[in-house]
Amino acid sequence: MDTTHPQVLPEGSPLVRFSGVTKCYGPLTVLDKLDLDIAQNEMVSIIGPSGSGKTTVLRVLMTLEKINDGVIYVDGEPLTHMPKAGGLTFATEKYLHERRSKIGMVFQQFNLFPHMTALQNCVEAPMQVLGLSREDAEERALNLLELVGMGDKKDQHPTRLSGGQQQRVAIARALAMRPKVMLLDEVTSALDPEVIGEVLNVIRSLNSEHNLTMIMVTHQMGFAREISDRVCFFYEGKIAEQGSPEQLFGDPQNERTKQFLHAVL
Ligand code: ADP
């Protein structure tokens, strides 16, 4: 039982809070007492060397992996835990499942349902999980497919779409759940160079016009620099350095950050 973390965060707290989060795989500590706050409408990029724990941050927030210690809060409430006897205890699968829809995630591999059209891919979860009527779910899905420039391809199956188009449908599908926060995991790394721009343009507009809260793991340093409010540099499961893009890319302080940026830029 965890009595060191509050059952509810005070009003005005960040939308997402990682409080002392540790994640291990066997003997390997992948996240090491991680503290990370994400404000409403903030766009945070996570960069760092391979194996530093970047994807794990997203996977534990998506509740795809259980954490070993600490608490993750979303919207003031514990995501990973539930209240018990004045403290918190690890959440059951059922509880986690109910909370999962607060988080939207877009993966490297688009993970669209291959036997469904673009539109069907976007209506499935809102109907099944949120209980929307087909009519309402289709209206919502169509608006979102338009938003990502895929309205005219709504009846196509994924195999008939380019990688960039599939990824835009995957973004629309995640948005259809109206998540509190969107997680983007290397969303352009499986794409051909010529279609990367169309996906980045969609993310850019979600950020600038629709004020979504987003956490993005990326190797696209130029893009991270352009659109992030804050950049976090991960090293061995901790944030080694964080700051505005100007500060982190322009005047890094930590030796590890300097080495990393020197190698990738
Ligand atoms: P990054 O995204 O920064 O490349 P990850 O978060 O994917 O790093 O992984 C961090 C570390 O955790 C790596 O050493 C990786 O091998 C290990 N890891 C990730 N997933 C698993 C797993 N399911 N089982 C065991 N080790 C894992």
Automatic annotation (TrEMBL):
Residues 16-261 form the ABC transporter domain. InterPro entries: AAA+_ATPase, ABC_ATPase_HisP-typ, ABC_transporter-like_ATP-bd, ABC_transporter-like_CS, Ectoine_EhuA, MetN_ABC_transporter-like, P-loop_NTPase. Signal peptide: none annotated. Its main location: membrane. The keyword Cell membrane applies. The keyword Oxidoreductase does not apply. Keywords: Amino-acid transport, ATP-binding, Cell membrane, Membrane, Nucleotide-binding, Transport. GO terms for molecular function: ABC-type amino acid transporter activity; ATP binding; ATP hydrolysis activity. GO terms for cellular component: plasma membrane. It is found in: Cell membrane. It is a peripheral membrane protein. Belongs to the ABC transporter superfamily. This is Glutamine transport ATP-binding protein GlnQ. The gene is glnQ_5.
